[in-house]
Specification:
The structure is a single chain. The protein is mainly alpha-helical. Helix content is 50%, strand content 9%. The chain is built from 12 helices and 9 strands. The longest helix has 49 residues. The N terminus is likely disordered.
Length: 377
């Protein structure tokens, strides 16, 4: 690095390729804000995503939807930047302390997303992040405070209540997140009443609705009025009697009304498209039946192959024992009864096999004798 073992700045063109390796880091979960230096000597390689700070927290926001657990701002310092040469450890730590109030403002104004354990942005927290970015530039721009082009979702609703859609109260997480992204991207342009009431230029650079995800999740909780919420998919999973693999298409068409009645009786707010969830549930169960069929068929095929192989082996051993020469008394080497018992066959089957084998032996001896007589002639 550009810092020696004592934390002092190291001069020299040998470090020219270091690039912008100095950063300010904000650990959102721990509430820690500090100066950090990457080890620029380590090439990115295949494990670039494992490096610290994580790439998903690099300050380059195009949308205000999710807050990474660790945020980082690259300090525009460089060997060739006269306005901002590389910082020593002491200078970097002092710079972090100088900018720390902005980090505190960012943390203080983040909005929790109910039921998720994560945060969403607010206009105030996003503006603080922009001010940290400005402080890290080579020109060290002063903070500008709250950006007028950023509008909190709560502010938008207060001046444009018709923005609220009834369906938001029962959307599942996936579709509610899609709504949040749409509002964040296009909410100001699609709703001029908001910008007119608040005096905001919708075409200003970076103009956006902020905090949409947190507001939508909070709205859904409020609409539930204390009742537990459950996705339709998980509700079907906990009520297996509602949809089975044998449920007919006609029954599926009537399922939304039926499942809503069951959920209301249990005091549960269902989230998501119940019809689609019922279809998906039946498909899942039918796929499981087909999987079981395939498994059972494979086991049966293996068992039948094993039986066939054993069947052939049994008769091979049986024919071998039947071919043994008789005892001095004239009795077979092994009785038919004993062979039938060992082979788990009927006595008559063994007797018939012995007779067939004796006949074949007799016929073979006759043919052999005939060949010998022919040769002597």
């Amino acid at each position: 690095m550009y810092l020696d073992s004592k934390g002092s700045y190291v001069q020299g063109k040998a470090h020219f390729k270091a690039g912008h390796y100095q950063k300010l880091v904000l650990d959102v979960r721990r509430g820690e804000f500090y100066f950090h230096c990457d080890d620029w000597r380590v090439p990115p390689g295949e494990h670039w995503g494992d490096r610290f700070p994580p790439s998903n927290g690099i300050w380059a926001p195009f949308q205000w939807l999710r807050v990474a657990d660790v945020l980082s701002w690259t300090i525009d310092s460089h060997y060739t930047v006269e306005q901002r040469p590389y910082l020593t450890r002491e200078e970097g730590n002092a710079f972090a302390r100088e900018v720390a109030p902005l980090g505190e403002s960012l943390l203080r104004n983040l909005q929790p997303v109910p039921g998720t354990g994560v945060f969403d942005w607010s206009a105030e927290s996003a503006s603080a992040g922009m001010d940290i970015q400005a402080a890290c530039s080579r020109h060290r721009h002063p903070p500008r405070g709250r950006r007028p082009e950023l509008v909190n979702m709560a502010e938008a609703v207060s001046v444009c209540p018709q923005l609220i859609q009834d369906r938001w109260a029962t959307l599942d997480d996936k579709h509610l997140d899609e709504e949040a992204e749409g509002l964040n991207r296009f909410g100001l342009h699609n709703n001029p009443a908001i910008t007119e009431a608040l005096g905001v230029d919708p075409d200003a650079h970076g103009a956006s609705l902020v905090g949409t995800r947190a507001w939508l999740y909070e709205h859904r909780v409020s609409a539930a009025a204390g009742r537990p919420m459950q996705s339709a998919a998980s509700f079907f999973a906990t009520h297996p009697e509602l949809v089975t693999a044998d449920t007919t298409t006609a029954e599926l068409r009537a399922m939304p009304a039926k499942v809503r009645a069951v959920a209301e009786a249990e005091g549960i707010v269902l989230l998501g498209d119940t019809g689609h969830a019922a279809d998906a549930r039946r498909k899942q169960l039918r796929d499981e039946v087909l999987d079981d069929l395939a498994i059972c068929s494979a086991v049966r095929a293996e068992a039948e192959a094993a039986v066939k192989s054993r069947h052939s082996a049994v008769y091979a051993y049986l024919y071998r024992a039947l071919s043994w020469e008789a005892q001095h008394s004239g009795e077979p080497a092994v009785s038919d009864t004993r062979l039938a018992e060992l082979a788990h066959l009927n006595d008559r089957i063994v007797a018939r096999l012995r007779a067939q084998l004796d006949q074949e032996i007799t016929e073979e001896r006759t043919r052999s004798q005939q060949r010998q007589d022919y040769d002597r002639k």
